[in-house]
Specification:
Elements: H1 2-20, E1 27-29, E2 35-37, H2 39-52, E3 57-64, H3 87-92, E4 102-111, H4 118-132, E5 139-143, H5 149-159, E6 166-169, H6 182-194, E7 204-207, E8 210-213, E9 218-219, E10 228-229, E11 237-240, E12 243-246, E13 271-275, H7 283-290, E14 295-300, H8 308-319, E15 323-328, E16 342-343, H9 349-359, H10 366-375
């Protein structure tokens, strides 16, 4: 009984002190010799520790796209103007981000993602490496158009030289649309880039509360908000109630474990993609070679199957010293090894092109280039 009385007295004193705005070290002696600590003082001490914790510094690099797009009405979700809004406007639209990170913004370009060039990729990759080399930057978020976000993400997955989080995000609806998905996607991207569990997982992509690996993500629908999937390998995780949950691991090598250094590269090798179909002609290969292509990726039917005409075109290109990679237009699955040819493993044609451009900056041996497709 005495123990309960002492405890009650301690709580009353603590509450009185808290309401008065003062801090007092109060404890009650229990019968067993232990102390009941002033709960108000303990709570104030905890709050003081939390206030002293530094928010992570996240740099948002903007490239344009639908997330910065504007339309003429709230129901216009096609035919809008991409990249119309500047990064400052995007940041101001999501003030909640500042509760979880210190935010800075930088406009790299402002274009539809179909207009992202090799030069833009190099500029973006170099800037990211520069920022991540600083102790003042804890993570990067890139806003991007959805049409080619998977290509930029995979490029960065191969050239970023840091294990700090790099997260790309986008939107399927412009900023002016009813129920625009961009603001929450941007918030989630900052959340991921700020989270300790995102470190060392390579470049990430997030839309619609999904967490996807750069190597495996692909756009699977032209208009719906849940357009991005990882068909063969699944999502890395999901974001629920402001917390990321990771369920899968990244198995292919990335970032600091690749040999691709773009710090001194001013131009990437020219690589073209040629689509395979019934009655496809040989002249497409000759045109690519004659216009300066150093590499060709064939988006072939099925398991990288070449028609007689396509095979003739591939052989012509290889005789001219052009590196050819057989990929598939199917959308999922692995292209099996082909004797005398480089195959893309499970990379789709657009990502196979990204890897071939970088591979050719460090190697010209077909066996070594094939090893890159197997590893990265």
């Amino acid at each position: 009984m005495k123990k309960k009385f002492n405890y009650l007295i301690a709580l009353i004193v603590a509450a009185t002190v808290a309401l008065s705005g003062f801090t007092l070290n109060v404890s009650a002696q229990n019968n067993d010799g232990t102390e009941t600590v002033n709960t108000a003082q303990a709570e104030q001490s905890t709050k003081g520790q939390l206030s002293e914790e530094r928010l992570p510094n996240i740099a948002i690099l903007a490239t344009g796209g639908t997330i910065a797009g504007t339309g003429s009405s709230s129901t216009q979700t096609t035919g809008y103007k991409s990249g119309d809004l500047a990064i400052d406007t995007l940041i101001e639209a999501v003030p909640e981000m500042k509760e979880i990170a210190n935010i800075s913004g930088e406009q790299i370009v402002s274009v539809d993602s179909t207009d992202i060039t090799d030069e833009v990729l190099l500029k973006l990759g170099k800037r990211i490496n520069e920022l991540l080399a600083s102790d003042d930057v804890d993570g990067i978020v890139i806003t991007h158009g959805t049409d080619t976000i998977e290509e930029t993400a995979y490029f960065l997955n191969l050239v970023v030289k840091s294990d700090k989080p790099v997260v790309l995000t986008a939107a399927m609806r412009p900023a002016t649309a009813m129920s625009a998905d961009g603001p929450f996607n941007l918030y989630n991207a900052v959340l991921l880039a700020s989270h300790k569990n995102s470190k060392g997982k390579g470049v990430l992509v997030t839309l619609n509360d999904r967490i996807l690996a750069a190597r495996n993500v692909t756009k699977t629908n032209t208009t719906v908000t849940d357009a991005f999937k990882s068909i063969e390998n699944g999502y890395l995780g999901t974001i629920v109630a402001g917390k990321p949950y990771y369920y899968n691991n990244v198995t292919h090598l990335h970032t600091t474990d690749t040999p691709f250094d773009i710090s001194t590269i001013e131009k990437l090798p020219q690589v073209e993609i040629i689509y395979g179909y019934q009655n496809s002609p040989t002249y497409m290969y000759k045109a690519a070679v004659n216009n300066g292509a150093k590499g060709i990726v064939v988006a072939a039917p099925g398991d990288g199957t070449l028609s007689a005409n396509s095979l003739q075109g591939v052989e012509y290109a290889m005789e001219k010293g052009v590196t050819v990679v057989r990929s598939s237009r199917v959308g999922s699955g692995t292209v099996s090894p082909k004797e005398g040819f480089i195959t893309s493993d499970s990379l789709n044609p657009q990502k196979a092109r990204i890897l071939l451009m970088l591979a050719m900056t460090v190697a010209d041996n077909p066996e070594e280039i094939q090893s890159f497709y197997n590893q990265y």
